[in-house]
């Protein structure tokens, strides 16, 4: 088994050539429906953070594109990762456990932060690297010829990660390249070049990964596992709670949770977020006295606003019988 190299080849490489790589979408998911791009390449110099749109949907020194699944249950069900372009497998790693990392100094992953993964070399000095794949899912070996769309493995939780996702790195001649703007020498707001993607990929500056109903405020671990939604609740339940799971939230954003029931508004809660977070959840609920939860339709809405503009919203209907 050839072990995947994690250190980048020398960054003193030539500029991106005119023969740009063309990338196909590398995950068997629909962006905005059952996966999200949670973090982009950090294009800023120094400690600042800046993605290709001049927004901070990244973190300091991030060298790839993170395509995230909402829940661990999605990972367990299996989501395929594909080769983004034709090439040759130059290295792979398998066998690392799928688990939450304790941080960059986690001794179990030191020197293997990519986790289980695949490295593919393409023409003209290009290469793509696919990290955090599920243990036992790798389907290719060093020397294999692959085409765009070849199954490589499945999204996992191996290496230095806190959520199930594919970390896709793109390089040319060892130089990190942002597939959303390959001219890395151009500052934000300048001509960063046409994206390498074969099709347009919409930019989502934050939003919701999921939401659901419960009869109590769930723990974050339960939400991330994909087991927090208890809907439909039964008539007579003594409480109703609506929770929403978000990504890319920034300090100053407003997050509103509302529930409308058979007799009108039950809950309308708005919170101004006090810090920027990669992931978070919020819940709003109400104890139901006397006869408990009444039968009928309950519509819940989660809304994320930034500077007065709706970034994302999500609606959930529950029929109580």
Please outline the helices and strands.
Layout (H helix, E strand, L loop, with lengths): L35 E4 L25 E4 L3 H6 L2 E3 L4 E7 L22 E6 L4 E8 L11 E2 L4 E4 L10 E8 L2 E3 L29 E8 L5 H6 L13 E11 L4 E8 L2 E9 L4 E11 L8 E11 L2 E12 L1
Antiparallel strand pairs: 1-2, 2-9, 3-8, 4-5, 4-7, 5-6, 6-9, 9-10, 11-12, 12-15, 13-14, 13-16, 16-17
Helical element count?
Answer: 2
- CATH level-1 class of the largest domain: Mainly Beta
Structural class: mainly beta
CATH fold name of the largest domain: Glucose Permease (Domain IIA)
End-to-end Cα distance:
56 Å
CATH superfamily of the largest domain: Glucose Permease (Domain IIA)
Instruction: Tell me what the CATH architecture of the largest domain is.
Output: Distorted Sandwich
Helical residue percent? under 10%
Radius of gyration (Å): 22 Å
Q: Strand fraction band?
A: 35-45%
- Count of spatially separate domains: 2
Largest pleated sheet: 8 strands, antiparallel
Order of helices and strands: EEHEEEEEEEEEHEEEEEE
- Net shape: globular
Total strands: the figure is 17
Round the mean pLDDT to the nearest integer and report it.
92
Could you name the ranges where pLDDT drops below 50 across 5 or more consecutive residues?
A: 1-18
Characteristics of this structure?
single chain; about 325 residues; mainly beta; Glucose Permease (Domain IIA); Immunoglobulin-like; four-stranded antiparallel sheet; 2 helices; 17 strands; about 5% helix; about 35% strand
């Amino acid at each position: 088994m050839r072990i995947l190299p994690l250190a980048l080849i020398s960054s003193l490489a030539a500029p991106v050539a005119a023969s740009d790589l063309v990338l196909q979408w590398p995950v068997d998911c629909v962006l905005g429906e059952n996966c999200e791009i949670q973090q982009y390449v950090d294009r800023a110099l120094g400690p600042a953070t800046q993605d290709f749109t001049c927004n901070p949907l990244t973190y300091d020194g991030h060298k790839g594109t993170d395509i995230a699944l909402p829940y661990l249950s999605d990972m367990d069900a299996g989501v395929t990762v594909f080769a983004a372009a034709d090439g040759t497998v130059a290295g792979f790693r398998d066998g690392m456990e799928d688990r939450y990392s304790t941080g960059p100094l986690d001794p179990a992953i030191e020197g293997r932060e990519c986790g289980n993964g695949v490295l593919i070399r393409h023409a003209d000095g290009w290469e793509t690297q696919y990290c955090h794949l599920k243990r036992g899912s790798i389907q290719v070996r060093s020397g294999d010829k692959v085409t765009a769309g070849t199954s490589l493995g499945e999204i996992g939780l191996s290496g230095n990660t806190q959520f199930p996702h594919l970390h896709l790195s793109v390089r040319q001649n060892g130089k990190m390249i942002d597939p959303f703007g390959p001219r890395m020498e151009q500052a934000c707001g300048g001509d960063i070049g046409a994206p390498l993607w074969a099709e347009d990929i919409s930019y989502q500056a934050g939003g919701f990964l999921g939401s659901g109903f419960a009869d109590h405020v769930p723990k974050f671990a339960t939400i991330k596992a994909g087991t927090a939604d208890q809907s439909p609740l039964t008539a007579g339940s003594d409480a109703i709670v609506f929770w929403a799971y978000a990504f890319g939230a920034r300090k100053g954003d407003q997050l509103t949770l509302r529930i409308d029931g058979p007799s009108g508004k039950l809950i309308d809660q708005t919170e101004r977020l006090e810090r920027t977070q990669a992931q978070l959840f919020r819940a709003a609920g109400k104890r139901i006295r006397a006869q408990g939860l009444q039968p009928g339709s309950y519509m819940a809405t989660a809304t994320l606003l930034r500077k007065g503009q709706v970034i994302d919203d999500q609606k959930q209907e529950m029929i109580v019988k």
